[in-house]
Fold this sequence. Notes:
By secondary structure, this protein is of the alpha+beta class. Helices cover about 55% and strands about 15% of the residues. Helix 2 (about 90-115) packs antiparallel against helix 17 (about 590-615). The radius of gyration is 60 Å and the shape is flat.
Amino acid sequence: MKIRQLKHVGAVVAATLILTACAAQQQQQAANATVQVQRGSLQVTVNGSGTVAPLQSSDLTFGVNGKVQKVLVKEGQTVKEGDELAELDSRDLDQQVLQAAANVETAQAKLQQAQSGNATDQDRAAAQANVDQAKSELEKTKTGNITDQDLAAAQAQVQTAQGNLQRAKTGNMTPADIAAAQAAVKTAQGNLQHVLSAVSAADIAAAQAAVHTAEANLQKVQSTVTPADIAAAQAVVHTAEANLERTKTGNVTQADIDNAQAAVRSAEAKLQTAQQGPSPDVVSAAQNKLTQAQQNYQKISAGDSAAKTTAQQNVQSAADGVRSAQQVYSTAYWNNTQAQKGIDPKTGIPFSKEPVVILTNQVLAPLTTPRDYANALTQSKISLDQSQIKLQQAQVAAQNAQQQEINDVANAQAQIDDAQTQFNQVQKGPKATDIVPIQALVDQAKAQLQKLQQGGTAADVAAAQGQLDQAQAQLTKLQQGPNPGDVAAARGQVDQARAQLAKLQQGPNPGDVAAAQGQIQQAQAQLEKAQQGGNPGDIDAAAGQVNEAQAQLAKMQAGGTQADIDAAKAKLDETQAQYEKLAAGATQSDRAIAQAGVHQAEAALAAAKLNRDDAVLRAPFAGVVTAVTVVAGDRVVTTGTKDSPFTLVDLTQLHVDVNISEADTTYIKEGQAAKVKIDALGTNPITGKINYLAKAGTTVQNVTTYLARVDLPHDNPALRVGMNATVDIGVAQRQNVLVIPTRAIRDAGDKHFVRLKKGATFIDTEIRTGLANDTQTEVTSGLNEGDTIAARGIAPVTTKGSTGAQ
């Protein structure tokens, strides 16, 4: 909206250049130009801009994926609600419907089966067979359920047990077992002989070498530490101390800290730049791009519209040619029909034998023979065909021109939309998603700097301190001399080696001799046991196995036990109950499950039919098809695609949406008239009506606006969706008031002045103002109708005082 308040600042420009007399005179004349104070009407308007939009618009797509089989509409075609727009290849969907229907029939059959007993004749026959088998098993159990093979196996087990008893009586020892026991005795005797034999010279030499080694180690422990050993230990201590100092500082140099500080400053500078938002140059570039896109749209729209109009005129001209050729052909056809009957169509009498002159240029003169009329018919048919071809060519050219206009306008509109989006983004300033990663870089740089300034971790410092303590302990040990404990340990090793040598020199150990003699006695006892025969306990165990096998055989021969018979009866009762259950019919739960299966199959059938219906795309409301992006054979998917196959708009009520500032909403009322100027249709405005004023506003950079919708009249067929429009809404009006040009007013603080002409001079005069717009301002006091004032409110050329109007 543009409501100008009376705050116009007049500027007096001091001339500093030496002007010619003529120039000075021209300046004085311009400054002294005058206007008269008059009565008139004054109107203030709120204005905005937008584009013509339809009542509703929808990008339509199919409900299922598939291949387009038929496209039934074209761009610009008017359709009714429910009209078919296109159809997919539905063979797979039809098959799915048939399969779902078959599943319903199967589920219904299962339900009927459950309701009638849930068992077929085959099921009942199988249950009866199970009952018969259980009865047979019961009879077998009563007789022991023993076959001839079972008896033979039991008799074989008795014979095996008797054989085991016989072997137990002989000790279960074979001649080979006795020979092995004799060999064990001989081995034990050989081991005793080895123990009693003298120690070899090699054993004594090895023991002496061990004594020498232990004595040398004792000498080394008792030896004095050299200065070189202490110097080396001191070097290790110094190295550990230096490493500890580096660890405490994190092994970080001043250069590392300087670089980290520089990284923090760089990241903070980037963050500040991002938070400040785009520069005026960037905003200006975005505005220029939007302006260029809008100008390009107007240029392309005008050029393509002219080309389309020319193509349509060519179609009309070609159609006129076809109608003319059809008239000629119709006349020639009638004349030829009469001539073939022997009647001259011009005279209505039979042909004479005298030749008649034929006129050309498609003007038929009386012909002399029927052949001439036939030739004229043929020639007129050729002319008609040629004119029809020209018409078809003109129609194709017109369609191409129309399509070219649609494509070019769509591309130009896309450029406007893209430029508008970029301009809006620039005006909105930086997004949070742009600030967050830069802020993260600042935080990361600060954290790195803090880490470098803190030095090494406690764990690293502790490890370095441990290494230093170990090095200092080793140095202290070398400086103090031999450790008494190490000396005592070395002496113990010498004593142990000397004792082992003395033991070898003394001969066999009585304990070893006694152990070897014990092994001989154990082997001899084992041999005597093998030669004596079986153990009474083994014989008793084998006899028990014989008795058990004989008892099992007797049991089989005696028949089944009462427990086995009871188990067989229980099995028979179970199979009998199962048979009775099948014969009695299904349970309540079985019928409920079958019923649920029917519902599930019916739901699947409904879903399959719905998918089949979705293969046909229908108009959700009456309107005009404005875009068709598919042809037969194209594959379409319901998700993951940007373009919709069809776009449908409802043109029953066109409107223009404009944004109104929050200060101007108090002047706007629903139902209020508005003047709408369509750029593409010339200067004559259209009278619209405010249909809606938004209850909630939109705030961008602390500026809040509210959407106002202006409905356009229905009687203008030239209106097109997307046309640029300017809306003026009258919000205030004064009749028969004093008005002067707004530019004639000079503001000084909160006061307003004009230059009132008195005779040949101009006097600054204070006035009070009322309503104002861009060009005119209402004067409520200070001037009278007919007064003459300077046309511009600059400093007066001649001033002889000022009077204030109250």
